[in-house]
Write a structure and sequence with these properties.
Helix content: 40-55%
Radius of gyration: 20 Å
Strand content: 5-15%
Oligomer: single chain
Number of strands: 5
Length: 187
C-alpha cells in the first residue's frame, strides 16, 4: 500500500487480525504484513538446511520484519479491549457515580470480570463501551503511526465489516514467494 496510509483501511486490517498475530507496517512504503506466533516459532524450531529455498526466504522475511527498524508493529485490538486502563477511562468519561465506583471496584477485583460484564449489560453500557473502544483503538493506531513518522489519511471511520465492501475479510498476508521476491528482488 503506498504512503500515506489510509487509517480506515489499516484499522480494518487490524480488526480481522486474530489473537496470536501481529500486524506490521513498513515505514517507507506503507505495506502491511501479519506475523503469527507460529511464524515466529519457525525462527527457533526449524532446521533451515532441510527447507526449500522459498521457505528459507519466508523465514528470512519474518526475521527481517521482526528486527528491522523499517517495520513497525501496530497495537492489538484484542489487547486494548482487555486493558483495564481503557475500561477505567471509559467509565470515568461515560458513567456517573455511584455506578462508576461499582464498575471500578469490579474492574480491579480479582474475580469481578464476569460481574463487570453483567453490570455493563444491565446498565446498557455495551454499545457505548464498543464505540469508546473503537475510538480509543483508532487513536492508539494513529498515535503509533505518528510516533514513527508514518504519514496517514484520517478518513471517517465507520461502516459494518460485513456490508462494507471496502473492508477486507481477512488480513493481507504476503505469500512465501512474495516475501522472497521483496527481500531478494534479483536483477
Amino acid at each position: 500500500m503506498p504512503l500515506p496510509i489510509s487509517l480506515p483501511q489499516l484499522l480494518s486490517e487490524l480488526s480481522v487480525t486474530a489473537s496470536g498475530e501481529s500486524l506490521y507496517v513498513h515505514k517507507l512504503d506503507g505495506d502491511f504484513c501479519v506475523v503469527s506466533e507460529e511464524d515466529v516459532s519457525l525462527l527457533c524450531d526449524v532446521d533451515e538446511t532441510i527447507l526449500p529455498p522459498e521457505q528459507v526466504a519466508f523465514i528470512d522475511g519474518i526475521r527481517h520484519i521482526l528486527i528491522s527498524d523499517d517495520w513497525v508493529d501496530m497495537p492489538s485490538k484484542q489487547a486494548l479491549g482487555e486493558d483495564a486502563a481503557t475500561l477505567e477511562a471509559f467509565a470515568r468519561a461515560k458513567v456517573k457515580p455511584p455506578l462508576l465506583q461499582q464498575l471500578l471496584k469490579l474492574l480491579y477485583s480479582s474475580n469481578g470480570s464476569q460481574q463487570l460484564l453483567d453490570l455493563m449489560a444491565d446498565e446498557s453500557l455495551e454499545e457505548p463501551w464498543y464505540e469508546y473502544q473503537k475510538e480509543a483503538f483508532r487513536r492508539a493506531v494513529g498515535d503509533r503511526l505518528q510516533a514513527h513518522n508514518i504519514p496517514f489519511i484520517e478518513e471517517a471511520w465507520g461502516g459494518d465489516r460485513e456490508t462494507d465492501p471496502a473492508k477486507p475479510t481477512q488480513p493481507n498476508r504476503p505469500s512465501q514467494t512474495d516475501l522472497a521476491r521483496r527481500l531478494n528482488p534479483g536483477p
